């Protein structure tokens, strides 16, 4: 029986949703393999290990150290490599997040292993498994297979559905002692500029604004709509460049790549750089007063009109439907 190691992500003491998606991905690669979930950080990690077991892991391994309270490349590489050396897995699965994109190539280098990044779909299983990932800013997709060595992949958040949580599941949570030291980077303070509430990269619903919102205050109706829908607010690079919002909200080729269930593009023209970050969303709704805007070419539904009339009306209608 094979073994797959899933390296989880923790933020503010809670597991990120991509951690559960990683477990589902490992199960899909080889349903007969043992899935071991690793949690790296500081604080009460054993309860997080049990939660990962409830989401489908067979057992969990935790590495707790004060130098892992905040993510640093040096610290997390040391902790991850200690777990990998102990478990000697046949494969490793991580999220294609800001942490995963930094950590995975460092681990692959130390293992002298290949790495398939930004996987959006897994086809087949066992010896016939293929990994599908976008290329050319999402204009095409390629299928990759691993012929030898470890299976090492990162998966794009919101693309592989997590398994259903089973609170009756329990398993062994083992603590691994690692002396995390010689850090070249020390995190003194973390200041979050991103919008409060739902994490943009994991949001199922995103309301994004472009230059058409005209000002920072123009984002207020978008925040209200996102709040009613239980979603997050994003932006185009044009809106960020204009100073309407922080760059942490930017979606596109040089920003975040998102794949929500619903993407509402408000006052966004549809430049190719923006489409690269959201064109794989399951349903796209465009609101723009220009009927010739390129965003309508990728939208499933389009509303031609002034966003300052359409968005508030849409918000009130949704509130009415929700009672």
UniProtKB/TrEMBL annotation:
Cofactor note (record): Binds 1 FAD per dimer.
Domain of life: Bacteria
Domain Electron transfer flavoprotein alpha/beta-subunit N-terminal as annotated: residue spans: 4-195
Cofactors demanded by this protein: FAD
Keywords: Electron transport, FAD, Flavoprotein, Transport
Keyword Transport: yes
Entry binding sites for FAD: 211, 236-237, 250-254, 267-274, 288
GO BP annotations, alphabetical order: fatty acid beta-oxidation using acyl-CoA dehydrogenase
Keyword flag Manganese: no
InterPro entries linked: DHS-like_NAD/FAD-binding_dom, ETF_a/b_N, ETF_a/FixB, ETF_alpha_N, ETF_asu_C, ETF_asu_C_CS, Rossmann-like_a/b/a_fold
GO molecular function: electron transfer activity; flavin adenine dinucleotide binding
Entry's family note: Belongs to the ETF alpha-subunit/FixB family.
Protein name: Electron transfer flavoprotein subunit alpha/FixB family protein
Gene source species: Allobacillus saliphilus
């Amino acid at each position: 029986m094979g073994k797959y190691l899933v390296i989880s992500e923790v933020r503010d003491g809670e597991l990120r949703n991509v951690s559960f998606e990683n477990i589902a991905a490992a199960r899909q690669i080889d349903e007969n393999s043992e899935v071991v979930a690793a949690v790296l950080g500081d604080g009460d990690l054993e309860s997080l290990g049990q939660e990962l077991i409830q989401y489908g892991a067979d057992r969990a391994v935790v590495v707790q150290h004060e130098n892992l309270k905040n993510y640093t490349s040096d610290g997390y590489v040391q902790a991850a490599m200690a777990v990998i050396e102990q478990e000697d897995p046949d494969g490793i699965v991580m999220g294609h997040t800001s942490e995963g994109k930094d950590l995975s190539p460092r681990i692959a280098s130390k293992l002298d292993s290949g790495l398939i990044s930004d996987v959006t779909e897994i086809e087949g299983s066992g010896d016939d498994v293929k990994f599908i990932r976008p290329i050319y800013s999402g204009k095409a997709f390629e299928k990759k297979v691993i012929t030898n060595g470890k299976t090492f992949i990162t998966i794009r958040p919101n693309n592989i559905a997590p398994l259903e949580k089973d609170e009756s599941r329990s398993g062994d949570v083992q603590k691994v002692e690692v002396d995390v030291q010689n850090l070249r980077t020390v995190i003194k303070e973390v200041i979050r500029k991103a919008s409060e509430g739902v994490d943009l990269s994991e949001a199922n619903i995103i309301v994004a604004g472009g230059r058409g919102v005209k000002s920072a205050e123009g984002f207020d109706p978008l925040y209200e709509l996102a709040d009613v829908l239980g979603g997050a607010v994003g932006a185009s690079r044009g809106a960020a460049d204009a100073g309407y919002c922080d760059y942490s909200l930017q979606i596109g080729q040089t920003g975040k790549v998102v794949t929500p269930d619903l993407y509402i593009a408000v006052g966004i023209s549809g430049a190719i750089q923006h489409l690269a970050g959201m064109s794989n969303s399951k349903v796209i709704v465009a609101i723009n007063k220009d009927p010739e805007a390129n965003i309508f070419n990728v939208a499933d539904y389009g509303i031609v009109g002034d966003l300052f009339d359409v968005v508030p009306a849409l918000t009130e209608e949704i509130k009415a439907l929700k009672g």
